[in-house]
Amino acid sequence: MTKRFAVILAAGQGTRMKSKLYKVLHPVVGKPMVQHVMDQLSVVQLEETVTVVGFGAEKVIETIGDQCNFVIQEEQLGTGHAVLQVEELLKNREGTTIVVCGDTPLITGETYQALFEHHEKTGSKATILTAIAPNPTGYGRVIRNAENEVERIVEHKDASTEELSVKEINTGTYCFDNQALFQALQHVSNDNAQGEYYLPDVIEILKDASESVSAYLTPDFEETLGVNDRVALAQAEKTMKKRINESHMRNGVTIIDPDNTYIGLDVIIESDVVIHPGTVLHGKTTIHADAEIGPYAEITNSTIGEGSVIKQSVITDSQIGEQAEIGPYARIRPESILGNNVKIGHFVEVKKSTIGNDSKVPHLSYIGDAKIGTGVNIGCGAITVNYDGMNKFETKIEDNVFVGCNSNLIAPVTIGKDSYIAAGSTINQDVPEESLSIARARQLNKEGYASKIKKRK
Ligand code: UD1
Ligand code: MG
């Protein structure tokens, strides 16, 4: 097999994005566009990948640093000029170079592979990946001759009215014979509407030199979207979201409303999970079988155990056991570990706490820096008082404790197992196991006193 190389064009500022962030670093489903390109390229066997950077070079290198080599394009004089920057690295290497743009995040590895195969099979010096665009505005158009052979590519801004009506577009992805590419690039000029050195001009140059040029027309235009502005960015997001959701559905996940469900690329979901509308799953999240998520749950870098139900809640960097019930309106903050059959009800916040199996925090509580055992019941409105304004302290609540409503547990404090805390208590000393602790003012009833007050009025 001929050796394969890749050049990723990522030096442009992306003026049309109107952003501080360099275009290729704009995320699609949370991952920078250029990283999508790198990941999909990994499907084809590459000898070497070189990314051309310029605007925001440092940031781009920081993002994909260890995955490829870089060359700097000091001035952004066009895509042809960008490819020339890798000449020293590649011109003497025999093989095929795929050139891809850093702003086409949806092209799949399978399509890259199909393009290589077409190029190798036809023995062409250049093969363009093309697609039929329902609305080709902004793209370079593929101009074919009477024999239907590719003649050249004309940029939108340079095209005649007739050429503008062509729907076959240049996706910005090409396979080239290395030597032919760098020879042809010597002849590219910047005599065009944008005053740039266009890479697509190489096609006409090769054709004029009687070299064979072909096109591989991919049936899926959606995949080839070039993201030049925020409108296209939203389209890319939508397409990627659809792709991800459909793959989960095919794997046995029910997604009630795929248009309103947002699942990150690294999320793992087992079969028979049901996802309700408005759910957002980010990062390294795993949802085990038979769980029910949403509506309106946002879960980041967390694990949800088998059969658990998570309603309208936010869960971050935490682990939830099996058959647990969370929400509605609960917030589970980082480093929380909740056991099996745990119940966290509405308006409960849990932070950096462990809650053992079968424990319940059903209503209006704050649990922070706590270690709670199994079978514990935390009454409505009870809270851990974990912060004195300077330091955080730990609350330990051992197995089978019952904490009455509206209690304050002032940390550091330990509630021994099987104890009861009377409602409304403020506990600032350890409670021995199997005790009842009451820490509130005694009630005093002054009988008949109400009439005295009324008389004063
Ligand atoms: C380009 C193609 C167009 C094609 C479209 C597909 C050219 C002249 N036009 O247009 O035919 O239909 O992609 O999406 O190639 N870049 C550099 N250095 C530069 C200029 C650009 O590295 O000097 C990089 C950009 O960062 C970007 C890529 O090349 O990732 C493409 O540049 P862009 O300005 O987006 O070209 P388009 O106008 O989209
Ligand atoms: Mg573009």
In short:
The protein is 20% helix and 29% strand. The chain contains 10 helices and 41 strands. It is elongated.
The outline comes out as elongated
Count of discrete alpha- or pi-helical segments spanning 4 or more residues? 10
Name the structural class: alpha/beta
The main sheet comes to: 9 strands, parallel
What is the architecture of the largest domain at the second tier of CATH?
Alpha-Beta Complex
Under CATH, the topology of the largest domain can be stated as Spore Coat Polysaccharide Biosynthesis Protein SpsA, Chain A
| DSSP strand tally | 41
Mean pLDDT: 97
Strand content: 25-35%
Radius of gyration: 31 Å
Relevant CATH superfamily of the largest domain: Spore Coat Polysaccharide Biosynthesis Protein SpsA, Chain A
Q: How far apart are the first and last residues' alpha carbons, in Å? A: 101 Å
Cofactor: Mg(2+)
Family: In the C-terminal section; belongs to the transferase hexapeptide repeat family.
Pfam family, one: GMPPB_C
Catalytic activity: N-acetyl-alpha-D-glucosamine 1-phosphate + UTP + H(+) = UDP-N-acetyl-alpha-D-glucosamine + diphosphate; alpha-D-glucosamine 1-phosphate + acetyl-CoA = N-acetyl-alpha-D-glucosamine 1-phosphate + CoA + H(+)
Structure characterization notes:
20% of the residues lie in helices and 29% in strands. It is of the alpha/beta class and 457 residues long. The chain has two domains: 4-224, Spore Coat Polysaccharide Biosynthesis Protein SpsA, Chain A (Alpha-Beta Complex); 252-437, 3 Solenoid (UDP N-Acetylglucosamine Acyltransferase, domain 1). The strands form eight sheets. The protein has a nine-stranded parallel sheet with strand order 14-17-20-23-26-29-32-35-38, with no helix packed on it. Helix 7 (178-185) packs across helix 8. The termini are far apart. The model has no long low-confidence stretch (mean pLDDT 97). Bound molecules: uridine-diphosphate-N-acetylglucosamine and magnesium ion. Magnesium ion binds next to loops. Residues 231-251 are annotated as: Linker.
